[in-house]
Task: inverse folding
């Protein structure tokens, strides 16, 4: 019963709430994003943020038979004391998400096998690979 009281108290202190769902193609990438983004603490004590991995059905408890590998959606819940604080925090967070996704696109382990935005022709130490 204490957990419900704690949640009610959190809702009173932080009345502004936003839930972001960010889908990824695999559990590995979703988990990497969670670990990368969770490192940075919120700069203001007027904002709280929680992370979870979920499946496409929105079920945060892993569905039976699907296993943890089905959890490919990053669920981020923001709570703040004012709408302005919520907006500022989420804007900064979305910039971090953009950076994490760009790094994944360019430096994922199978990046060599996918078409790139730039060519490697003439790059020192790079040999052409026939696929």
Result:
């Amino acid at each position: 019963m204490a957990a419900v009281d704690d949640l009610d108290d959190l809702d009173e202190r932080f009345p502004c709430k936003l839930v972001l769902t960010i889908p990824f193609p695999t559990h590995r990438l979703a988990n990497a994003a969670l670990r990368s983004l969770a490192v940075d603490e919120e700069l203001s004590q007027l904002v709280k943020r929680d992370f979870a991995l979920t499946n496409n059905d929105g079920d945060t408890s892993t569905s039976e038979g699907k296993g943890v590998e089905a959890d490919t959606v990053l669920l981020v819940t923001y709570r703040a004391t004012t709408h302005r604080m919520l907006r500022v925090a989420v804007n900064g967070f979305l910039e971090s998400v953009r950076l994490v996704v760009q790094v994944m696109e360019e430096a994922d382990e199978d990046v060599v096998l996918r078409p790139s935005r730039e060519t490697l022709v003439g790059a020192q130490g790079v040999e052409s690979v026939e696929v």
